[in-house]
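Ticket #4471: structure output looks truncated?

Reporter: J.K.
Steps to reproduce: submitted the chain below (229 residues) through the standard prediction queue, then opened the result file.
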Amino acid sequence: MLKILLFGNAEERKILEEALLQPLKEYKITFDIHNLSNPQKFMKNYLFNNDYHLIVMCSDGNTKYIFKSRSDTPLIHVVTGIMSFPPTAEEIDDKLMRNPELASFFSPGEYTVTHRDCTRKIPYMDIDYIRRDNDKTIIHLTNGGTETTSKNIGKVMSEINREYFAKSSPGLFVNTRNICKIHNSCQHYKTVELKSGAMVELKSIYFDKFRDAYSLSVARLASLKTLDD
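Returned output as attached by the reporter:
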């Protein structure tokens, strides 16, 4: 469970909690939110220990956050950063929900690939896209590598969690959570830019369903304006 401390006055804490609730639920992260307004207690009892994994606070007109280790070792500031106040859905998604340190608090799932007597479990977060290669299927990873399975694309997509993957062109499915940008290439297709830097084609016939899947997966409808830029 992700244990969260919100620090600030009552109004600031309410704003921060409302901003965090939707993405936490969408990513299916179990969480426990606590509130604190006393600066002395914050410095003495909360900042310098590992009771809370994530501290979010309003300070100097900004939202500041600290990820802390889950271990019993002395305090380690895993990640610190600043967002606007109130933080936008895009900031929360990019800086908190997609932060690798948060991955241990939710289980996005994984896909098991067996090929030539070798078996590997691949977390969904490591998959950029999946494409058909004749009767085989190639899984393209965020690190630029690939994994090949002898299963056809239909079999793979029947086994994988389709909450994460949307069809962008015949025989090609994209992990909507690993999309960086969608470029308006021409009337008949757009280009999807992925975490690895790979660029794949989004055919116009799949655009509406793809856009719906994308908006649901990242909870940031406002960012969809990039689709038409």
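Triage note (M.O.): checked the attachment and the full token line is present. Residues 31 and 84 are 23 Å apart (CA to CA).
Status: closed, working as intended.
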